[in-house]
Amino acid sequence: MTKITNNIIFDASTQTLNKQRSRMHEVSQQISSGKKYSSSSEAPLENSQALLVETQMKQIESFKKNTSYGNYILKAGADALNSVSNLMTQLKTIAIAASSDTLSAQERKNYAFEVKDIFQQMISNANTKVEGRYIFAGYKNGQIPFNSDGTFNGNAIANEDMSIEIQKGVTANINIDGYSLFKGGGGSGVDILSTVSQLITALDNNNRTAIQNLHATLNQGADQIVNAESDIGNRMKKMDMASESLDLLNTDLTERKADLTDADIVNAMNELREIETQLNASLKASTMAMSLSLMRYL
Amino acid sequence: MSGIFGILTKAGTALNAHRYSMEVTSNNINNLNTPGYTRKQAVLQNSAFGVAGGVTVDHVMQAKDEFTDKQIINQNMAKGQHESQSQVLSRIEAYFDQENPNNLSDSIQQFFDTLRQLSTNPSDSIFRKQVLNAANEMSKKFNDISNDMQSVRESLNIEIKNQINQANSYIKQIAELNQNVKNAIEAEQGNLIDQRDLALKKLSEIVGVSFFYDGQSNLNVMTANGEPLVQGTSPSYLVADPFLDPFNPVPDFQQDVISPGNYGVSVKDTDGNLTSLTQYMLNTESSGGKLSGLLKARDNQLKDYFKQIDQLANSIIQDVNTEHRNGTNLANPSVTALDFFTPYAVPPIPATLPWTDFGAAKQMKVNITDPNQIAASNSVAGVAPDPGNNKNLLKLIDLQEQKGYLNTFNNLSYQVNNDIYTADSNKEKDTVLLGQLEKFREEIVGVNLDDELLSLMQNQKSFEASARMMTTVEKMLDTLFSLVR
């Protein structure tokens, strides 16, 4: 039998009560903050992992901004090219109609007016501006890329990429190369704007042969635009896919972070009730143990 | 046979003995809650002479449990160390807490995210401003963390001094008590010894000590590595000196620009001479006590964190500058090789740097002031860059993954939190063990009120009995005297 001194009873009571109170504080803290830990040193590993998750989520947010911006630019490009494509169809129809040998010079002149109008519409589409940038100008997107006569001011390096990061280590090109698209890129491509100018001249001059000769080039030009449209479509699809996988990743990370740091409220509530009962019992036991003394009977 | 008067005298001594016993008991009751007090007991003995020898107090017995006492001292040393370590390190914890929205890793991520956004439209003036803001924010965070760690270190030096003063007062007390014990009569020694043991216990919380009792009932105390603190009645005091080690003029980390110098702890005798050739008696190797916890936190842990933060800051400064210098800016394209951050400069003092990037985090500052100075383009210097050219930005963005800044910071954050966690859980373990030991000790030396009350009653009854004896003898004498008329 060990001797139990007054100090032992006192110390034991204080210790038990302190322990229960601090646990109670911890649990009620968990409930009120919704967090598993009140300080990072309680769980160094979880804290580190949560830090990584947190920064990854921020990064995703930034990637999302990029994909949405990229999509915006590409969409504007696709819209412009869609109009251009319609204009090309009109041009083709006019070229065929104007090739007919029953047409008078005046009638061809009238067509010329119409084509001049189409030409201006084309130029205006090629000068599409989104948020202060000319999307067909390449790097030189601060200045108007196409003059009204169809000459080019923009970035004349064909196929120059303008890359933005859309996922970790994945870049996407948001450049729509106006030089290749409208001016043939100095290579095998069709210089659509010059072709249209030639058509205007031919119509003005009532030159049926010249008009006929332009049929093939106009068809090629129309194909060039259609190809570019489908290229943009593909790039937008890639952008969408990236955006979707970023969303998925974000959901996973949110869940992971909750796992790492969020408190299980139901458990915490139960525990709180348990501790309350314990604490009550301890308080009763302590007061009883401490008040019992021989002194009361002397 | 001593006759009837003999009985009277014996009853007298018995009265004395019981009264004395009562005094001891009442002292026990009075000191029920005195820290360090041990239960005393008057040991009664019958006199050696014959059947009617009577009773006297032979000596006052003091309950003692030296084995447990020694363990308590050791546990106390460990607890002191872990306690102070955890206290110090917790003060910088917030910088490494993911719940803190201002932690450094967020700022680093933010900086690279703004660069990424700028890359979508490199001529956008708002995006450019964003980059500058994020860079300033990140630099400020580095400055803050460095300054805070510095102020923690400075306050550590003050704390070390305070602890040393406290320890010295205990050392003095022990030496004085050694003298007092020697001078005191035996019966009073017990209480003095209790006080002395208590002083030792408190000292052990601050300094790692070992101790022994010599033949003249002196308590001799030494530091854990054997430097005497109390030899008999002469004390040697701990002193805190700014580091000036003759053998190592600029010990690592001790003398630097920012603080007036860290304190080293050495031991000096009463004449002010060092007790040993080795100047610093306590160092990071010494174990136990708050002082060693403080020194460890200062010279091992904080120093290491400091160094890693400086390294991280400087690598960001250098890497970003290197890429940035290759680019062309919008503001004035003919200005080439423009630094994004102010390059790290070696601080004028100390003469010898404790590490190569010393002070980089404290210095970190954005060099460019005009958002248009951000060199986004890779075009030829001197010619105004195309507004859409983002090639240099892409290289800057790549740095984050390539150099793994966040991983570096994350590792450090794990290290800091884990150090605090370890210190905390050690402290908790120490507290539990100490509680156990204190309970063992209490079982042997502690005062139980019921026991004492019982012994009080016992003494009272014995006293009454002896007194009754006297009255009886008196009556006997009366009877005798009545025979003579």
Structure explained in plain terms:
The complex is a heterodimer of chains A (298) and B (485). Chain A is built from 7 helices and 4 strands. With 298 residues, chain A is mostly helical. Chain A has a two-stranded antiparallel ribbon with strand order 1-2. In chain A, strands 3-4 form a two-stranded antiparallel sheet. In chain A, strand 1 and strand 2 form a beta hairpin. Chain B is rod-shaped and about 145 Å long. Helix content of chain B is 58%, strand content 9%. Chain B has helices at residues 3-30, 66-90, 104-120, 125-183, 186-206, 289-326, 360-363, 391-403, 405-445, 449-483, and strands spanning 40-46, 55-62, 209-213, 219-223, 228-231, 234-235, 237-242, 263-268. In chain B, a hairpin with a 5-residue loop joins strand 3 (209-213) and strand 4. At the A-B interface, helix 1, helix 2 and strand 3 of A face helix 3, helix 8, helix 9 and helix 10 of B.
Outline the secondary-structure elements.
The complex is a heterodimer of chains A (298) and B (485).
Chain A lengths: L5 H28 L10 H56 L5 H22 L2 E2 L2 E2 L28 E5 L2 E4 L4 H6 L8 H13 L3 H54 L3 H27 L7
Antiparallel strand pairs in A: 1-2, 3-4
Helix pairs in contact in A: 1-7, 2-3, 2-6, 3-5, 5-6
Chain B lengths: L2 H28 L9 E7 L8 E8 L3 H25 L13 H17 L4 H59 L2 H21 L2 E5 L5 E5 L4 E4 L2 E2 L1 E6 L20 E6 L20 H38 L33 H4 L27 H13 L1 H41 L3 H35 L2
Antiparallel strand pairs in B: 1-2, 3-4, 4-5, 5-6, 7-8
Helix pairs in contact in B: 1-10, 2-5, 2-6, 2-9, 3-4, 3-8, 3-9, 4-5, 4-6, 5-6, 6-8, 6-9
Give a brief description:
Helices cover 69% and strands 4% of the residues of chain A. Chain A contains seven helices and four strands.
